[in-house]
C-alpha cells in the first residue's frame, strides 16, 4: 500500500503558497536543499512532475495544481486531528489588532486556521487605526498588531510594501472636479500622507467628508461625492482606482508591518507565522499552473 507523506505535502503547499523553494524553506525553517529533496521525494512517489522548473522561477504543472487541492485537505485534516488530540497545553487567549483596511482577505483565513490548529486558544480581534493599535500594544493590552505605515519602527517585521493609491466610485467623475473633493476618516493614517501630497503638488482640494466612521466615508466614495486614498489591492468592491490619466499626486508606498509581544510565544509564534504566510500570498508570491 502506498501512502502519502504529510511532511512532503506540507513542503509542497509551502512552495505553492510562497512562490518558490527558497521562500518556502524560510517559512518552514529548513534548508533549501531539504525542501528540494522533499519535493523530489513526493514527485518520485507519485511518478509525476509537480513543478515546472524551466525559466527563472518555478510554477505548478497541471498535475501539481490538481494535487494542491487534495494536499491542502489532507494536511488540514491531519492538523485538525493532531490539534484536537494533543494540543491540551495550547490554551489561553491572544489579542490581535489589525487596521480596518487590511482585515480582508488575510485575517479571516488566519482566524480560521488558528481555530483549526489550536482549538483551545481564543483569538480576540481588535480592528482600529494604526496609531491606536500601537498605543494599545505599547501598554501591553494587545499581543500582536499589524500596522500600515510609511516608516515602521525598527522592531517591526515588514511583511509587504504596497502602493497607496487614489480611489473613487466605479466610473465616477469626482476626481475630475476642482476643487478636488476628498474624504477621510478622522484617524486615518493615510490622511496626512494624502494631504501632504496634495499640498506639494499645488492641487486645489476640499475635504468634503471627515468622520470617525469608516462606513460613512465608504458611502461618500461609492456615491461619487469624493475620492480617498487606500492601499492597492485592499479596496472594497464598490471602489475603483482613479485612472492613471488623472492629474493627482503620487502617494508613494506604505508598509504592512507586524509587531509582536514576547509573552506566550508558544501561541504567538504560530499566529505570526500564519500572518506572514497569508500576506506572502497577497503580495503575489503564489504559483500559477504552468501553461500547457
Uncertain regions: pLDDT < 50 for 5+ in a row? 286-292
Number of domains: 3
Give the helix tally: 9
DSSP helix fraction = 40-55%
Describe what you observe in this structure.
The protein has 292 residues and is an alpha/beta fold. α1 (6-18) crosses α2 (21-28) and α1 crosses α4 (62-86). The protein contains nine helices and eleven strands. The protein has helices at residues 6-18, 21-28, 32-46, 62-86, 106-117, 130-139, 190-201, 214-222, 265-282; strands spanning 51-52, 59-60, 92-99, 121-128, 144-149, 157-168, 180-185, 205-211, 228-231, 240-241, 253-260. The strands form three sheets. Strands 3, 4, 5, 6, 9, 10 and 11 form a seven-stranded mixed beta sheet that branches. It folds into three domains: 6-86, Winged helix-like DNA-binding domain superfamily/Winged helix DNA-binding domain (Arc Repressor Mutant, subunit A), CATH 1.10.10; 92-159 and 254-282, D-Maltodextrin-Binding Protein, domain 2 (3-Layer(aba) Sandwich), CATH 3.40.190; 162-252, D-Maltodextrin-Binding Protein, domain 2, CATH 3.40.190. The longest helix has 25 residues, at 62-86.
What are the salient characteristics of this protein?
single chain; 292 residues; alpha/beta; Arc Repressor Mutant, subunit A; D-Maltodextrin-Binding Protein, domain 2; 3 domains; seven-stranded mixed sheet; two-stranded antiparallel sheet; 9 helices; globular; disordered C terminus
Could you outline the blueprint of secondary structure elements for this entry?
Elements: H1 6-18, H2 21-28, H3 32-46, E1 51-52, E2 59-60, H4 62-86, E3 92-99, H5 106-117, E4 121-128, H6 130-139, E5 144-149, E6 157-168, E7 180-185, H7 190-201, E8 205-211, H8 214-222, E9 228-231, E10 240-241, E11 253-260, H9 265-282
Amino acid at each position: 500500500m502506498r501512502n502519502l507523506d504529510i511532511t512532503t505535502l506540507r513542503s509542497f503547499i509551502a512552495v505553492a503558497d510562497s512562490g518558490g523553494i527558497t521562500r518556502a524553506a524560510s517559512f518552514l525553517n529548513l534548508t533549501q536543499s531539504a525542501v528540494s529533496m522533499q519535493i523530489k521525494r513526493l514527485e518520485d512517489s507519485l511518478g509525476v512532475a509537480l513543478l515546472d522548473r524551466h525559466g527563472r522561477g518555478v510554477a505548478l504543472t497541471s498535475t501539481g495544481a490538481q494535487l494542491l487541492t487534495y494536499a491542502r485537505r489532507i494536511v488540514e485534516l491531519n492538523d485538525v486531528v493532531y490539534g484536537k488530540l494533543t494540543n491540551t497545553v495550547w490554551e489561553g487567549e491572544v489579542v490581535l489588532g489589525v487596521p480596518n483596511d487590511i482585515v480582508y482577505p488575510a485575517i479571516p483565513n488566519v482566524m480560521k486556521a488558528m481555530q483549526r490548529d489550536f482549538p483551545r486558544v481564543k483569538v480576540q480581534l481588535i480592528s482600529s487605526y494604526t496609531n491606536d493599535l500601537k498605543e494599545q500594544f505599547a501598554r501591553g493590552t494587545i499581543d500582536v498588531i499589524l500596522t500600515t505605515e510609511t516608516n515602521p519602527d525598527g522592531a517591526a517585521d515588514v511583511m509587504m510594501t504596497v502602493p497607496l493609491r487614489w480611489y473613487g466610485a466605479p466610473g465616477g467623475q469626482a476626481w475630475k472636479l476642482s476643487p478636488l473633493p476628498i474624504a477621510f476618516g478622522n484617524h486615518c493614517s493615510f490622511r496626512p500622507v494624502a494631504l501632504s501630497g496634495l499640498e506639494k503638488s499645488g492641487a486645489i482640494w476640499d475635504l468634503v467628508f471627515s468622520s470617525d466612521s469608516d462606513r460613512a466615508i465608504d458611502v461618500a466614495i461609492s456615491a461619487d461625492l469624493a475620492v480617498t486614498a487606500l492601499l492597492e489591492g485592499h479596496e472594497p468592491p464598490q471602489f475603483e482606482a482613479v485612472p492613471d490619466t488623472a492629474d493627482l499626486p503620487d502617494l508613494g508606498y506604505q508598509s504592512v508591518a507586524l509587531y509582536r509581544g514576547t509573552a506566550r510565544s508558544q501561541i504567538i509564534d504560530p499566529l505570526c507565522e500564519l500572518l506572514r504566510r497569508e500576506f506572502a500570498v497577497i503580495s503575489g508570491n503564489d504559483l500559477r499552473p504552468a501553461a500547457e
